[in-house]
Design brief:
Layout (H helix, E strand, L loop, with lengths): L6 H17 L7 H13 L10 H20 L6 E5 L10 E4 L9 H11 L1 H10 L7 H16 L29 H28 L1 H14 L1 E3 H8 L9 H7 L7 H7 L4 H4 L31
Antiparallel strand pairs: 1-2, 1-3
């Protein structure tokens, strides 16, 4: 349950697991202690004294279920690794853990799928309850930044064309605040709203089509409070795509290229057959010094007794 963690983060998880086991008067650290330690590191300390009303808990469950369904059935989105609706310090109403693919280039379809997955929580709230809540604050912040990047940075908008107003050097080389007119500024705002609206409509259509899966995941989350990717596959079946999820590829070890040392271990090379024979002056065919003295290490002299 630690995909993408750095070595220091894994060490922190191990220390937390040991502390949790000690608080429970255990003689050894169990897998449950490690699971609780991961939750502690990611989401913060569990707030056992924080009481959430059943209505709020239901909203949170459907919100996270919306993310889960959208991420599971959108080809280029990142399916969740783990979701929890237990209140914690950093995550006030729970958290969702994802494992993004390691890539540096994104096309328009991939960015749109990510935006739809991010909007899955708010779309689920409106679809199920007929109203929205403030729980989508971070989601809206994220998709707004993505939409503005599509239009103003990456030149992926047909209306504005192949232009970028991004200053990679961090300096205002244009000599004024905005290198475009008020008309262009209005066009940018309109295109951003259009992109977000299209993504939201597409997300609502997907959740409407997958309403049964949404209900199943939300009810399971209300009952267990924590779901893993294996639980998601058990509840709604495998993803309708041939490719592995980033988490599955990580667990199978197929999410990275083999290193040179790993290839050598898997396919050892017989050095005796590949290297040519060395005919050095002063050595016979057996590698002994001509005259009967054994050859010593490089840079040393062997004196016969």
């Amino acid at each position: 349950m630690t995909p993408g963690f750095a070595g220091a983060e894994i060490a922190n998880v191990c220390n937390e697991a040991a502390l949790i086991a000690a608080r429970r008067d255990k003689k050894m650290v169990t897998m449950q202690d490690f699971t609780d330690a991961v939750d502690r590191v990611i989401g913060g300390l569990e707030k056992k004294n924080k009481i959430i009303s059943p209505g709020e808990k239901r909203i949170v469950a459907y919100h996270e279920a919306g993310h889960a369904v959208a991420g599971w059935f959108l080809e280029h989105a990142d399916p969740l690794v783990k979701v929890s609706i237990v209140p914690r310090g950093v995550a006030a109403l729970g958290y969702a853990q994802y494992l993004p693919r390691e890539q540096f280039l994104y096309n328009t379809e991939q960015l749109m799928d990510e935006m739809c997955m991010t909007l899955g929580g708010r779309a689920a709230e409106e679809l199920v309850f007929g109203k929205i809540s403030t729980g989508a604050l971070s989601d809206l912040e994220r998709i707004t930044k993505t939409a503005y990047s599509i239009v103003t940075m990456y030149g992926m908008n047909e209306k504005l064309g192949n232009v970028s107003f991004y200053d990679s050097k961090g300096q205002s080389e244009y000599g004024f605040s905005k290198p475009y007119s008020e008309a262009t500024s209005q066009m940018i705002d309109e295109e951003v709203r259009t992109i977000i609206a299209q993504a939201y409509v597409r997300t609502k259509e997907l959740l409407t089509e997958r309403r049964h899966e949404l209900e199943v995941i939300a009810k399971e989350l209300l009952e267990k409070e924590v779901l893993l990717q294996d639980d998601l596959q058990r509840l709604v079946g495998p993803r309708p795509y041939d490719t592995q999820t980033s988490y599955q590829a990580h667990m199978a070890g197929t999410d990275r290229s083999e290193t040179l040392s790993e290839r050598k271990q898997e396919h050892p090379v017989a050095l005796d057959n590949d290297l040519p024979e060395l005919n050095l002056p002063g050595l016979d065919q057996n590698g002994d010094v001509a005259g009967g003295s054994p050859a010593g290490p490089a840079g040393s002299t062997v004196t016969p007794m």
